[in-house]
Specification:
3 copies of one chain form a homotrimer.
Chain A: H1 4-11, E1 14-18, H2 24-34, E2 37-40, H3 47-52, E3 56-60, H4 66-82, E4 86-89, H5 97-109, E5 114-118, H6 119-125, H7 144-155, E6 158-162, E7 166-169, E8 174-177, H8 190-202, H9 208-228, H10 233-245, H11 249-253, E9 258-260
Parallel strand pairs in A: 1-2, 1-3, 3-4, 4-5, 5-6
Antiparallel strand pairs in A: 6-7, 7-8, 8-9
Helix pairs in contact in A: 2-8, 6-7, 8-9, 9-10
Cofactor (chains A, B, C): Mg(2+)
GO molecular function (chains A, B, C): ATP binding; hydroxyethylthiazole kinase activity; magnesium ion binding
Organism (chains A, B, C): Methanosarcina mazei
């Protein structure tokens, strides 16, 4: 897409989240900094209605409970009906059986357009041998690019594996995004924020693979700019928000480090 | 009131919140920065007891569930009995029927001393035609000053409508506060923080209309000071906390932009 | 212990939290800044499994519900079985009967290795006459050092009382830590963060009394360094994260202000 950021800032899409209690504020705030409007609503009595007025749905199972999963299913069904993109951030899959089962339940019950996770979370979802240390990726034996591509094919979803290099695939096209900075891993929540940004970009771009690739390039570019001025995770996070706020499509154009395989 | 900030800092009132999971930390932290003591407690087994040792109660329905509403009713009843101020931040009213109904349930069951929301939230509560885009105000056809005044009369509450200009009315007096800066809208949570500040000011000033007006002037003044040093929402938020912390009644006195209609 | 920080950063222990919704992000983020890996998971279906792959368990009752207490008991039982340290932050004990009862229930049902609270919270737990103003300590009549020592003996736990001076005792050894800065009290959550740090240090040091003492020295030292550059709670918090991130065992060695009684 040519000017995704400009488009988001002009159309201000509403991005509905059902997410975890750790990074919920940062999911909301980064969505706002990119120019979209975040809303968080998980009550079963209203979640489908809220999705119904939204342009994207972001699900994040970081602090899941069975009740929250039920609300996610209600909202995802509403999103499927409205044909707006559903993003699933599979936080912690590979750490406990409950997470594995609930992620499988979501994927088996509703259409998820974009499945996102770190290397071990996605590998586990894809049926590989993988374990997640809490919510932290461990090294996987399989080749990430192959995992992403094949899982995208078998799931008919866009698959996003985040890490030092991000891999995005829809089964046909596979991109590797090399934007970003190691300080992004020094703060909690950049993974969750990435899912919110992917949801925001997908809300204005029907090519979800392209949207996910753009989202990670833009976020990574902001991270690179912020890192230059930062002395640690505290100042990095402050600068990250400032840089996202002051980002433009033109600025990112010259910074994108993306490769199509 | 002459020196509201000094009074808060000297008496350190306990301000009980039952609020949303997105901005709960900022509600607590801004309350502390103004000199009051925040406490968050929503369990039905204790919420009325916690209200019973508090000097104000702030209710915020940003991520409401029916269980949370039940706790709000228990706490509000305790607050009514103790005659301490109850603030309701009607987040997202006008976005889903559930929010409309739950807000109506609160207003119909207990005494709310100060009803706060953005333009479309309050317009919807007041029976006007209005829709809220998630938790974001949309433009309303009615005149905000008229809405605030009439809704204050009919509800016998102080009504606070926040936006580019804030309107505060108790039905007799109507104030327009023009303090503030657009960067306040660039971060999530300044609306929720405003409700916490109103609760803190109302806990030391029995004239709730005056307290709400002061609260918004003080917060807006801090926002103006912070904006001067900021390059985006990240640095703005840091500076906002510093400015609130370093605020004094004298400093704000010269900055207040308030008009009585 | 000689190099606790280096050890944490090399072994990256997983620290499982069941905590409150106000400061959950800061608990996670400070754990990460010290080099450990935080994970938050409270669903009864998975919390014991998550504890089972962790190296420490931190329980914080800041926004407790009876369901959360049930999850805490499941996780604590798993921690006891695995013989990993359990830290209880007794937030708000002395404010409501429900908190008193739930804290007593935890202490009566499972082994808690480290009991932490502010002066009035611990005094109340220890059976002294004490009241907590929400989650804020009030002055206690008893001698903190005596309370800590005797409660440590009677509970067979390490007891940590935080305040202007921190008192740590295992019943035999009693330490007073004088590191820290008053700006730490200007932001919400430093108490909760201290519990997370204690959990992180205890996960690599079987001498829990030593671990708790070190944790408070290191955190306090970072607070002192951060305060030098800060103009208020906003900049202080940013600098606190940067200083923790850039801390080393060598740096803290020269700053420790600890006394053994």
């Amino acid at each position: 897409m040519k000017n995704p950021l400009k488009t988001i800032r002009e159309t201000k899409p509403l991005v509905h989240h059902i997410t975890n209690w750790v990074t919920i504020y940062d999911c909301a705030n980064i969505t706002r900094a990119f120019g979209a409007l975040p809303v968080m609503a998980h009550a079963p009595e209203e979640c489908a209605d809220m999705t119904g007025i939204s342009s994207a749905l972001v699900l994040n199972i970081g602090t899941l409970t069975s009740e929250i999963i039920d609300s996610m299913l209600l909202s995802a069904a509403a999103a499927n009906k409205k044909k707006i993109p559903v993003v699933l951030d599979a936080v912690g899959v590979g750490a406990t059986r409950f997470r594995d089962e609930m992620a499988a339940k979501i994927l088996g019950s509703v259409r998820v357009d974009i499945i996102k996770g770190n290397y071990s979370e996605i590998a586990k979802l894809a049926g590989e041998n993988a374990e997640t240390k809490g919510v932290e990726s461990t090294s996987i034996s399989a080749d990430p690019e192959k995992v992403a591509k094949e899982f995208a094919k078998s799931s008919s979803s866009v698959v996003v594996m985040t890490g030092k290099e991000d891999v995005i695939s829809d089964g046909n096209r596979t991109f590797v995004v090399k934007n970003g900075h190691e300080l992004m891993g020094s703060i909690v929540g950049t993974g969750c924020m990435a899912a919110s940004i992917i949801g925001s970009f997908a809300s204005v771009n029907p090519d979800y693979c392209d949207a996910a690739k753009d989202a990670l390039c833009y976020f990574g570019a902001a991270g690179e700019l912020a890192a230059k001025k930062s002395e640690g995770p505290g100042s990095f996070k402050v600068n990250l928000y400032d840089e996202v706020f002051n980002l433009s499509d033109e600025k990112v154009q010259d910074m994108m480090k993306v490769e199509e395989l």
